[in-house]
Amino acid sequence: MRHQHLAGRLLAGVLVVVATVGLAGCGTDDQALPDNQIGADPPRPVGMQDPAVIPTGPAASSGSCNPRASLRPSGALPRPRQMPSGTAMAKIVQRGRLIVGVDQNNYQFGFRDPLTGQLTGFDVDIAREIARGLFGDPGRIQFRAISSADRITVVKDGTVDMVVRTMTMNCERWQEVNFSTEYFTAGQRVLVTRGSGVQAIDDLRGKKVCAAAGSTSIRNIAEKGTVPVSVVNWTDCLVLLQQNQVVAVSTDDSILVGLAAQDPNTEVVGPRFSDEPYGVAISRESPELVQFVNGVLAKIRSDGTWTRLYTRWLTSLGPAPAPPVARYRD
What is the dihedral of CA 111, 280, 310, 219, to 10 degrees? Predict the structure, then answer.
C-alpha cells in the first residue's frame, strides 16, 4: 500500500510536468498564439542529445573477462569501527561517514521519498548495509546524487567511496574501476505507450528510443538499429515518451518497471535482449574495500537481509528470487 501511495505521488509530479507543457499549447487555434510559438517544438530536457552520441571507442570483448567475478573476502568481517589499520575502511571510519554515489530519480532503486524528502530504495538500502558493516550504524552515510554518465568519474577521482546505482558490470568498465560481486540481475527491455503495437525491440528499427547517457543501454539500442536519444535522467525519458518525442524507452527492466509504476498508460514489453549484472563500483586502488564489501554482501545473502530488501522494494518484478550467487576470481 505504501508503494502504491509513493507511486501515486511520483506520478502526480510527472503529470504536473506534462500538464504544464500541454497548457503552454492550449488555445482556440494556432492564430491565438504569438508568431514565435506557432508550431514550436516541445521543451527539451537539459542535456538531451537527439540523436545521441554513441561511444566510439572499442568495447572490451565480453569474453575477455568474467564480469561477475570479483575479489574473495579475506576471512571474517572485522567488527564495526575496528577496521585494519591503513585500509580504506579505516580511513572511512576515521572520517565518520561512508560517501556513496546513488540515483535520486529511479523509483524503487534510488529516489527521493515524496513524503519525507529522503533518498530511499533498494540500492540505497544496499549502501546502508555496507555502512552498517563499517560503523554498526546504517545511518553513518552521505549520499551523492549522480547521473549514469558520472558513475565511473566520481569513483576514479575520489568524490565518493563507491557507487551503488544500478551499474552493470562489464569487461570494459572493469578496466577503469573494480566491482563487488553481483547483487542484482537485470536485463534490457522496452517501455512503450499502451496500445502502441510495439511488442519487442525489433519493432523499433529506425525509430527514436530514449536511454540515459553513459549507460550500457545506449550502445545496446544503437546495435538494434534504433535512433538513440539520450538524456541525463531516466525520468526525462518518461516525459519524452509522454510528449511523443520518442516512441519508446529502453533500459534494464528493473528501471522500466519503476517508470511504468509512475504512468499507468505505459507498459514494459518484449523479452530481455541483454544481460545486466549489477555490482558496487569501487576504486581500483582499494582492493581491500572490494573484499570488505563482498563480505557484507555475503552476509546479507545468507542472513535473509537481501530477500527482505527485495520484498520491500521490488515485488513488482515478481516474487523474490534467490540472491545472485557470488563468483570470485580464484
Answer: 70
Q: Which amino acid is at 145?
A: A
Boundaries of every domain in the chain? 69-185+277-328, 188-269
The label of the residue with cell 501511495 reads 5
Assign domain 69-185+277-328 to its CATH superfamily: Periplasmic binding protein-like II (3.40.190.10)
Specify which residues 278 forms β-bridges with. Answer: 168, 184
pLDDT for res 290: 98
Question: How far is the CA of 269 from the CAs of 25, 256, 298, in angstroms?
Answer: 31, 10, 33
Does domain 188-269 match CATH 3.40.640.10? no
Q: Output the furthest CA–CA distance in the chain (Å, rounded).
A: 75
Write down the residue that cell numbers 562489464 correspond to.
Answer: 170
Q: Which residues contact 156 (CB under 8 A, 6 or more apart)?
A: 176, 177, 283
DSSP state of 297: H
Which pTM was predicted? 0.86
pLDDT of residue 7: 57
- Cα–Cα distance between 193 and 248 in angstroms, integer? 8
